[in-house]
Amino acid sequence: MKIAVLGPIAKDYIEVDDQSIVQIGGIPYYVAVALQFLEVNQITPYITYGPQDADWAKQNFFGLNIKFLPAEKTLEGHIKYSTTNPDVREHVIKSYNNTIQATPELLAELEDYDYIIFGPLFHDNIPFELFEKLQHKNLILGNFGLFTYEENGKFVRKNPQNLIKVLPFLKYLFLDKSEAEYASGQEGVEKSARYLQNQGLANMIITEGSQGSHLFIGDNYYKIPAFPPQNLADTTGAGDTYLAAFIRSLELFTDPQKQGRFAALVATASLENKGAFRGNLKDILKRLETII
């Protein structure tokens, strides 16, 4: 299993209750590190960040062979939430030009991967051309980025058509419930998913925090429970970890129910420690046996 992960990284300033930390963030970071600890054969993060942060980026990717894609400056995020209500967050970000160019060299390199995961934070991070020219590959889109804009340091949702037009090119789309409802203009998990599938999307995964997740694999539907963490240390990146674990599960299981449960359990394990998931695949599989 060879996986490329593309998108910007960010410096996240996180405040949880009375504690403050600074850590690396961004979808490529959480996804790539989780895949590494889940024993994927080859993971290559193609990431944008400011040149001045090169050493910092390398140190945070645990020895992975990162590919630097030039950006104006590293994105900066400010995240605040309470452990009493972890599904609700305040998130402010400083945005700079982090567009990934669809160069012939990049396109040629990406041909070598089984799965290509796009993790944009903003609408212009991954241009339409990349989706279009790589549509013959297994493309995964991991979040809300295509319809997210920065206005006065805030995330603003606009132009869901940015997402709609790439749906026919995707193998899997991962959104949370509110994002899916916004993008589809529908109310409720099933109506949102089926609407997006009717626009050409193959498979839809909708996460709903502590309420679990929903898999729409072709015409089939699977409800996946959320597993309570043994302790709650950090919710940041849990959705990205779910995505990474689900893609990893495609090589481990053929049953979508087991795939979803594996992804949910890895996401739960990520909540139990700060930062990206650094667990052990063997331990996860053993823990999974007790709940399947």
Outline of the structure:
By secondary structure, the protein is an alpha/beta fold. Helix content is 32%, strand content 28%. It has helices at residues 27-37, 54-60, 104-110, 128-133, 161-164, 177-184, 189-198, 238-252, 256-271, 281-289, and strands at residues 2-8, 10-16, 19-25, 42-49, 67-70, 75-81, 89-94, 115-118, 138-141, 148-151, 154-157, 172-176, 203-207, 213-217, 220-224.
Question: Layout of helices and strands, plus pairs?
Answer:
Layout: E1 2-8, E2 10-16, E3 19-25, H1 27-37, E4 42-49, H2 54-60, E5 67-70, E6 75-81, E7 89-94, H3 104-110, E8 115-118, H4 128-133, E9 138-141, E10 148-151, E11 154-157, H5 161-164, E12 172-176, H6 177-184, H7 189-198, E13 203-207, E14 213-217, E15 220-224, H8 238-252, H9 256-271, H10 281-289
Parallel strand pairs: 1-4, 1-8, 2-6, 4-5, 8-9, 9-12, 12-13
Antiparallel strand pairs: 2-3, 6-7, 10-11, 13-14, 14-15
Describe the protein's architecture and organization.
The protein is of the alpha/beta class. The chain has one domain (2-289): 3-Layer(aba) Sandwich (UDP-N-acetylmuramoyl-L-alanine:D-glutamate ligase), CATH 3.40.1190.20. It contains ten helices and 15 strands. The chain has helices spanning 27-37, 54-60, 104-110, 128-133, 161-164, 177-184, 189-198, 238-252, 256-271, 281-289, and strands spanning 2-8, 10-16, 19-25, 42-49, 67-70, 75-81, 89-94, 115-118, 138-141, 148-151, 154-157, 172-176, 203-207, 213-217, 220-224. It has a nine-stranded mixed beta sheet with strand order 5-4-1-8-9-12-13-14-15, sandwiched between helices. The chain has a four-stranded mixed beta sheet with strand order 3-2-6-7. A two-stranded antiparallel ribbon has the order 10-11. Strand 6 and strand 7 (89-94) form a beta hairpin. Helix 1 runs parallel beside helix 8 (238-252), helix 6 crosses helix 7 (189-198) and helix 9 packs across helix 10. The longest helix has 16 residues, at 256-271. It is globular and about 45 Å long. The two termini are 25 Å apart. The model has no long low-confidence stretch (mean pLDDT 92).
